[in-house]
Specification:
mainly beta; Porin; 5 helices; 18 strands; 7% helix; globular
Length: 463
């Protein structure tokens, strides 16, 4: 984190300050705040939240590249680490709303899910892909919240339920030459607490099509627990460079999961430890980050998804990530994010449903984004999944199944954000996005992988 923004980390601060950046430039940098997004099959990204702009009196480009997130600027990372508490001291209502409408064209016809939402075999328009309300902002001088509830029309039976939520306490500290910030969070999605767009909850794609093969390829368990768990983690940022976080997650009870319309609760047995460590620094107009993230998950032996008589299955996820971000004032920005994660699956003495007693799953995501004038954006993402041919794979609402996981492809996206750059009118935020996904391999096969290609257009607005 940039040292010149250290003062902004103070939960008691009421206005941004910097001894290095000029006031006119700082005003433009500090023009907005928004919240972030989860991954998971039912958890969808919580992106730009204008309630934060009203709280700080800034526009959205202060915290977000392009003014509509979830890509964070250095100030946006400081704001989140500070517990969403930075304020201009004026009263405001800590509520926001978000709406996403979309159109998806798939190369091959899909099996229409007409019982749920009137899907067609191709060319699907979804008026309410996602509609969310947010409680977002400062609760006390040291406590803030970002809590999202979402109505979804296109991922099964239309329903309203909880989404990514993050309640946190933050406080600065100083011991001699050591300065930092300490925080505790209560949240429902591993890595939703992270401030870099490399960890699973916030990595690209920020908005994904609800219909078709995209998201149908398998990913490590840590990427599929959003909404199905509740956890507490503690974190610290030391001298604006070293970040350490650790905590435990537990599955929701069946009753709680049903009341919240959350994901299936049977992915975790007992408590699952989560940890994160990274190092970041700033050189001129560029900032850099490299880190590690991991989680250990035990699946319950009595889960209906398993045929296990010899104890719970174990999943050990470990990932390495890196980020580069170049900011040329408000004119141009380049962000490169990447993560490689390896999951080791141990099926215990019986091997469960698998021929092998253990397997591996490898996941890689590398993406580059360019923005001009915080208005026009272009992103390209390369994704690749490999692993054992009979790996026990978790695919969200589809549960666990055995399959060849090898999938790879490229996602291309063009964006236009006409608003989010004027602090005087934080009520407006809009993105028009056009996305095209190409597959080189899909679930172990190259034959007709291109038939999974798709075109996705979305309109995403927030107030």
């Amino acid at each position: 984190m940039q040292e010149q923004l250290a003062s902004a980390l103070s939960p008691d601060a009421t206005r941004p300050a910097s001894p290095v950046v000029s006031r006119p430039r700082l005003r433009q940098w500090l023009l907005g705040l928004a919240a972030l997004s989860g991954i998971g099959v039912l958890a969808t990204p919580a992106h730009a939240v204008p309630a934060f702009a009203r709280q700080t009196g800034q526009a959205c480009i202060a915290c977000h590249i392009g003014g509509f997130g979830p890509q964070l600027t250095p100030f946006g990372r400081a704001f989140k680490l500070g517990g969403y508490t930075l304020s201009n001291g004026k009263s405001h209502i800590p509520l926001s709303a978000m709406l996403v409408s979309s159109f998806t064209h798939t190369t091959n016809d899909i099996q229409a899910n007409t019982d749920y939402n009137g899907e067609h075999s191709n060319d699907n328009f979804v008026a309410l892909q996602q509609a969310s309300i947010f409680l977002a902002g400062r609760l006390t001088s040291h406590v803030g919240v970002l809590a999202q509830a979402t109505y979804e029309q296109a991922t099964g039976t239309p329903h309203f339920g909880w989404d990514n939520s993050d309640l946190r306490y933050a406080h600065n500290y100083s011991f001699g030459a050591v300065n930092g910030i300490f925080g505790i969070t209560l949240n429902n999605n591993p890595t939703v607490t992270d401030v870099w767009n490399t960890a699973p909850a916030w990595q690209y794609g920020f908005m994904s099509q609800p219909i078709g093969a995209v998201g149908g390829y398998v990913t490590p368990v840590i990427m599929n627990l959003g909404e199905a768990v509740l956890g507490t983690t503690a974190y610290t940022l030391v001298n604006d460079h070293w970040y350490v976080e650790a905590g435990l997650y537990h599955r929701l009870s069946a009753w709680t999961s049903q009341q919240l319309n959350a994901a299936a609760p049977d992915e975790i047995s007992g408590y699952a430890p989560y940890w994160r460590v990274n190092y970041s620094t700033t050189k001129g107009n560029a900032n850099y980050e490299v880190g590690l993230v991991g989680m250990n998950v035990k699946a319950p032996a009595d889960s209906p998804d398993f045929n296990i008589s010899g104890g719970a299955d174990k999943y050990n996820d470990v990932g390495i990530d890196g980020s580069y971000q170049y900011l040329n004032g408000d004119t141009q920005s380049v962000t490169v994010n990447g993560m490689f994660m390896r999951e080791k699956q141990d099926y215990g003495a019986t091997g469960g449903n698998n021929a092998n007693s253990s397997n591996t799953l490898n996941y890689a995501n590398v993406n580059t984004a360019y923005w001009y004038d915080n208005t026009y954006g272009a992103t390209i993402q390369f994704f690749n999944v490999t692993g054992s041919s009979d790996a026990l794979l978790y695919s969200g609402a589809n549960g666990y199944f055995n399959n060849n996981p090898n999938s790879s492809g490229v996602v291309w996206e063009l964006d236009w954000n006409p608003f989010g750059k004027n602090w005087a009118d934080p009520e407006k935020n809009l993105r028009l996005g056009l996305q095209y996904t190409t597959f080189n391999k899909y679930n172990g096969s190259s034959a007709d992988a291109s038939g999974q290609n798709s075109l996705y257009f979305y309109l995403w607005t927030a107030i």
